[in-house]
Amino acid sequence: MKPLKWIGSSKKDLRKFPKDVKRAIGFALERAREGKKYNNAKKLKGIKATEIIERDRSGTYRAVYTTEIKNIVYVLHAFQKKSKTGIKTPIQEVNLIKQRLKEIKK
Hints:
This protein is an alpha+beta fold. It has one domain (4-105): YaeB-like fold (2-Layer Sandwich), CATH 3.30.2310. Helices cover 34% and strands 28% of the residues. It has three helices and five strands, in the order βααββββα. A five-stranded mixed beta sheet has the order 1-5-4-3-2, with helices on both faces. A hairpin with a 2-residue loop joins strand 3 (50-56) and strand 4 (59-66). The longest helix is centred in the first third of the chain and has 15 residues, at 19-33. The mean pLDDT is 92.
């Protein structure tokens, strides 16, 4: 099983999510540690990272991780999607993910 490392405030941010969402994202991260893919996970375009998408009545929640570096699952970001238009990941969130990817590559 691959080790799990939290980058920036991702762990703190995930702890604020609703209980069922946290449980589902935790399960998805365990699947990633086993080298498997979770049903509600998709590759982010143009970034070597995977996004887990979970919904509940309070909104849509996302967690982003990568396994591309040193055979470790790095959790790069966790956030609630607030945009009402489209399913695309907001640019400010993408920029933060890219910044954190650069940090772990150093």
